[in-house]
Amino acid sequence: MSREGPGGSLAGVGSPRRWGRGPASLSSRRNEAVVSTAVRVPEGAVSPPRLGRRSIGALGILALALGTLQSVVEPALPLLQRELGVGPAEGALVGSALLITGAVLTPVAGKLGDRYGGKRVLLSLMAVVAVGGLLSALAPNLPVLLVGQALQGVMVGALPLSFILVRRHLTTGESQAAVGVVLALFAGGSAIGMSVAGPIAHGLSWQWIFALPTVVVVAAALAVAVWMPHDPPASSGDRIDWAGVALLSGTLFALMVGLALVSSGDLSPLAIAGVLVVVVGLASWWVLVERRAAAPMVDLRMLTAPVTGRSFLLTLVISVMFGIVGLLLPQVFAAPVDGYGFGLSTGEIGLLLLPAAVAGALSDSVGGLAARRLGARRVVLMAMGVAAVVLAALVWLHDAAWQLVAAKVLIAFAVGVGTTALLATTAVAVKAEDTGIATSLLVVTRVVGAVVGAQVAGGILEAGAGPATGLPTEPAFVTGLVVAGLATALSLVVVRTSRKGTWA
């Protein structure tokens, strides 16, 4: 599954606020709007030293390495499953661990940068990424690899912290240009990761797909430490909701592991009930803490508003669909040719998935523009209509690799356009001071949907494994596509039954 989440990125409308209240986004349109007002400089403060090309270059190389590191797992997932001796349900955990950490850290990364200084926090996060990369490269089994990937998930915080640094040291116009460079290199790193995962894994070993990008991350972080000027902490009255962060992390990881355990079929009914109690208990505790917190990580009251509540529901359903598709297709590409699969290597899978990654990145600007000209409701209807038709066709037409590639491209583009339109309409529907909280909740919603979708797909494949080979059968793959199609149909029902007047 893609590390960037459905559609590859987010887009939205910025507002005059600190970055610390908003999520890390891969959309240049939203970041250019946010970066111009990301940091409030007190009147009379001494101007900080300006950034040189070496400093911006170091941030860019760091973004390139991080983009590579976050994208190498998707094409290599079938290989990792074989090497670690796990099935699709357990393999889906590898892709989900980084997503969860990144989503939880996103709302607080900017606040940490404001409170302790962007450079200091950025280097601290990169130290955690390096430890995670080392653990992933040396992992003897799945649990250790999951810990490493969870630690590497803090890389998501590098983007908002990079924007804080360039805004504090450059003019508004220069900041926008620097943000564009960082974002372009991050997207370029994602494409590189898709392309090089196979050659690295087959030329060296699968451990090196984590080790090599981590080495570049460490080198770039050292360059940032040497060339980036120190930025003084900014006064901030906002408290960091550490209790909410811890409980949300625990809830999402419990959900992820619980789905994998349940889908394995090895648990008794009593054990399944125990897993359910743990997940529901953690989720209820998190909701209670967030409702009582003075400065909650996620303001759950927004779910009760018609516009925002509908956007969150649609984002969840669409993300579940995309998570299912994201796990299914690499498994089909890697399945033996004597069945319904294509027997492709990790490198070949990466090249086939690359067009969809590009389509997801391009969908950001298209989604924002389309929402402004046609309205978010119409855009989501058209996007999910396309996805529904593609999934229906894929149920019957999946005997050629190009059919799966074309389907993934169309679905990635449709999902990116649809979720971008939802984010844009949510950003303008809430109060200006609530924009960061609303978009943070959407980020968490997208991750939850993608994680649930991937685990559902993994469970379907494991449940449909052939008794003789232990490998997923074609009916299991088709069942997964049908479930994804049902999720898409549900999103269309939600849009059609919602009143036009409630769309911003």
How would you sum up this structure, described in words?
Helix 12 (306-334) runs antiparallel to helix 17. The chain contains 17 helices and no strands. The protein is 74% helix and 0% strand. It is mostly helical. The protein is globular. It has helices spanning 28-35, 53-71, 73-84, 88-116, 118-138, 142-152, 158-169, 172-203, 208-227, 242-264, 269-292, 306-334, 346-374, 376-396, 401-429, 435-463, 474-497.
User: In this structure, how is the largest beta sheet organized?
Assistant: none
Q: Tell me the helix content.
A: over 70%
Structural class category? mainly alpha
β content, as a range? under 5%
Work out the number of β strands. 0
The CA-CA distance between the termini, in Å, is 31 Å
How would you summarize what this structure contains?
74% of the residues lie in helices and 0% in strands. The chain is built from 17 helices and no strands.
Provide the fold topology:
Blueprint: H1 28-35, H2 53-71, H3 73-84, H4 88-116, H5 118-138, H6 142-152, H7 158-169, H8 172-203, H9 208-227, H10 242-264, H11 269-292, H12 306-334, H13 346-374, H14 376-396, H15 401-429, H16 435-463, H17 474-497
Helix pairs in contact: 1-8, 2-8, 2-9, 3-4, 3-8, 3-12, 3-13, 4-5, 4-6, 4-7, 4-10, 4-16, 5-6, 5-7, 5-9, 7-8, 8-13, 10-11, 10-16, 12-15, 12-16, 12-17, 13-14, 13-15, 14-15, 14-17, 15-16, 16-17
Any key phrases for this structure?
single chain, 17 helices, disordered N terminus, 504 residues, mainly alpha
